[in-house]
Amino acid sequence: MPEDRPVADDPFAELGDPCLAVTDKRRGLVAVAGAREHGEARTVGLFHVTDRARRRWLLGSPYPVNAMAFHPSRPLLAVGTGEYDGGYHFEGELLLVDLEDGTVRSLIGHAFGRQVLGLKWLNDQELRVLMAPYDDWEDDGAHREGHLAVVRRADWAAVGAGSLTERDLTGPRGPAPRPDQREAARRTVARLSAPPTRRHHTRQG
Q1: Which terminal residue of the chain has fewer beta carbons within 10 Å of its beta carbon, N or C?
Q2: CB 132 within 8 A of CB 89
Q3: Is the dihedral of CA 36, 49, 21, 1 positive or negative?
Q4: Closest alpha carbon to 94 in 5, 156, 13, 183
Q5: For 96, how many CA atoms within 13 A lie in the half-sphere containing its CB?
Q6: What global pTM score does this model have?
Q7: pLDDT at 124 (0 to 100)
Q8: Which whole-number Å values give the CA distances from 199 to 97, 194, 202, in the listed order?
């Protein structure tokens, strides 16, 4: 359930090191993925930042968080996660988070999921998803390239868990950079954590 913890309680503290941050200026929200104790970004927090930072909720992910995107009109956050398992597969999830109560649906039905590298809402019905290949078997470019698919749903609020199939996630292959976004995320959190500056008005005679 939403928590609405004020800035005095340091709402960002439990995230650890900020690794990724995305903002929704229209709704006054920021989502931040953080890594605890120099690990990988496996915790996501949602914060109100219209006047002072208030934490709405925290959620954990079994995989590192690589991408996030706010839906243009619905109270939803898409979260892309995943990693290479060290021997064969690129595993991960595409999560859809309800911004009101923090409930989560994992959308990909494949047994190993997909490592999601990038997300972008093209409009209310279309989500562009960049994914690593399923595996790197005899595939030297698998760690540098990926597949780009556009998933279309009339109402994303009604999309069920495990409902995205291999057909939904099929798309052309091309370069898939894995940028480090930590510095930008740290700057965002530092700015939001700074105490508000009081304005001094001077009288003019």
Answers
A1: C
A2: no
A3: positive
A4: 156
A5: 22
A6: 0.89
A7: 98
A8: 38, 15, 10
| CA quadruple 103, 109, 113, 117: dihedral sign | negative
Give me the torsion for CA of 191, 67, 106, 56, rounded to 10°: 10
Both tokens of 153, joined, read 């749903």
Q: Is residue 184 classed exposed, middle or buried when 0-12, 13-18 and 19+ CB atoms within 10 A define those classes? A: middle
Query: In the chain, what are the domain boundaries?
Result: 7-180
CATH label, 7-180, candidates 2.130.10.10, 3.40.50.300, 3.40.50.2300, 3.30.565.10: 2.130.10.10
Res. 196 pLDDT band, cuts 50 70 90: low
CA distance 145 to 2: 38
